[in-house]
Write a structure and sequence with these properties.
By secondary structure, this protein is mainly α. The protein has six helices and no strands.
């Protein structure tokens, strides 16, 4: 038995089980039927036990194949979650928008659909407190050229 399982083999295995056939699974994973068949054999070698039943006409899993299917789905789910988590950089900070025309908070939020409600609420509170401070002490808030 190999020390690590290849995720592409596990993905192909899950596709075989979910589609019910090698050809259809090949379409799902972007491989030909012979390549899918070869991957299934490689996975059986990696496991060290048969994972498919002996009936070639009707796809069935052995007990080991059923166990492997649960683990394969979990591993692929974790892999997909991990890839999604690091697919794009985390965005932090504030966005300040200056316009010539008056813009309502609703219009600004619509323009920046990626802004979450909590960020919008936080920035609205900050702007309100900034505005109140400027009104009480206008000398401290002089616009820079």
């Amino acid at each position: 038995m190999e020390s690590e399982f290849d995720l592409s083999l596990l993905r192909t295995f899950v596709a075989i089980v979910e589609t019910g056939g090698l050809t259809t699974a090949g379409r799902v994973v972007g491989r030909t039927q012979p390549a899918v068949s070869h991957q299934a054999k490689r996975l059986e070698c990696a496991v060290g036990r048969p994972i498919f039943g002996s009936d070639k006409r009707h796809l069935t899993l052995t007990r080991e194949g059923e166990i492997l299917l649960g683990y394969a789905r979990n591993m692929l789910k974790l892999n997909d979650e991990l890839r999604a988590r690091f697919a794009s950089p985390e965005v932090e900070g504030r966005v300040r928008l200056g316009t010539v025309l008056p813009v309502t908070h609703f219009e600004a939020a619509s323009a920046f659909s990626w802004a979450t409600r909590s960020r919008l609420a936080d920035s609205t509170q900050t702007r309100s407190s900034d505005r109140a401070t400027r009104q009480t002490n206008p000398a401290r808030h002089v616009a820079s050229p």
